[in-house]
Design a protein that fits this description.
312 residues, 9 helices, Udp-n-acetylmuramoylalanyl-d-glutamate--2,6- Diaminopimelate Ligase, Chain: A, domain 1, 16 strands, five-stranded mixed β-barrel, five-stranded mixed sheet, single chain, alpha/beta, Rossmann fold
């Protein structure tokens, strides 16, 4: 995966206190490596040790060494350094940037950035933000709720009642993360985070009412911006010809960004309170994570009483 320097700059300018000083012609250079390189010996001009596609970070040691060199040697060092295959270079700690850096960066088309953060903190923050930029992402349509601290995705065809169910859950004291458009981001091998669109965040469409603002209507306690996805609930219309799981012994799974998540299929029909079923489903999921599986416990007790092997 590649990230352009321009995208890195747009995303990280504010949190990292970064600004572009020179080399704007190279903003489309690709950052192909999440690792950050402290320039070190590359600043001597004797060693070509910059790695392709990495962000180079220069601190007080590099700048002080460079300033101690004669003018002619400075030009040579800067030329060798900025001719390397790096993605861009960042000078930390709001250090004064030598004019030779600016000239060489422009000549070689390498973005030269300056940050107000101290070098050590700058490296940590760049690594954290690059980790997010390189994370696997996707977008799905549905509703993401925080129910009893559990991130629940409600899926189903348009008009099935997902938003109405979410609204009922909000009235019960639960929180909404996203309605309609859910942005998913993989964090680690088993973690998927969900969030809403910047444009439509905290808004919901209710047929007959139109667009409503949940934050304005119910306050900050009814919303949250990001939530780990732990359960998927698929909602569909009741099909009398279809056989549904009546015992709760089968454990459905859904893959989101390669992470397998427990999934429930809930058929809806007139008279069924969907929000109540979702809330109970989450409570039951919490019990399962604690080792309590009500359906299996009941079947096991029945098997012991009848002497028949329990179904699995």
């Amino acid at each position: 995966m590649t990230i352009t320097v321009d995208r890195f700059l747009q995303t990280c300018a504010a949190p990292l206190g970064i600004r572009l000083l020179a080399g704007s012609a190279g903003l489309l250079r690709a950052i192909t490596d999440q690792r950050v390189q402290k320039t070190g010996l590359a600043m001597t001009g004797e060693v070509r040790s910059t790695h392709e596609g990495r962000v180079q970070v220069l601190g007080e040691t590099e700048v002080t060494y460079f300033d101690s060199q004669a003018g002619v040697r400075q030009a040579g060092i800067a030329d060798v350094f900025f001719s390397g295959p790096m993605a861009c270079a960042v000078v930390g700690g709001s250090l004064p940037v030598p004019a030779a850096f600016l000239e060489a960066a422009d000549r070689h088309g390498v973005p030269l950035l300056s940050s107000s953060l101290p070098t050590t903190e700058l490296i940590e923050e760049i690594l954290r933000h690059l980790g997010r930029l390189f994370a696997e992402t996707t977008t799905i349509h549905g509703v993401l709720m925080d129910v009893l601290g559990v991130g629940v995705v409600l899926l189903g065809r348009s008009g099935i009642g997902k938003s109405e169910c979410a609204l009922d859950l909000i009235l019960r004291g639960h929180r909404i993360v996203a309605d309609d458009v859910i942005h998913l981001e993989k964090r680690g091998p088993g973690t998927v985070l969900g969030s809403g669109s910047e444009l439509t965040r905290h808004h919901m469409e209710i047929r007959g009412l139109g667009i409503i603002n949940i934050r304005d209507l119910f306050g900050l306690s009814a919303i949250t911006d990001v939530k780990k996805v732990e359960v998927v609930i698929q909602i569909e219309e009741w099909d009398p010809e279809k056989e549904y799981d009546r015992l709760g012994l089968s454990d459905g799974r859904t893959l989101l960004l390669g992470v397998s998540l427990p999934t429930l299929l809930i058929p809806v029909s007139p008279g069924r309170n969907l929000a109540t079923i979702v809330e109970v489903a989450v409570r039951n999921h919490i019990l399962k994570t604690q080792g309590v599986h009500s359906a299996r416990d009941l079947v096991d007790r029945h098997a012991r009483r009848t002497g028949e092997p329990p179904p699995r």
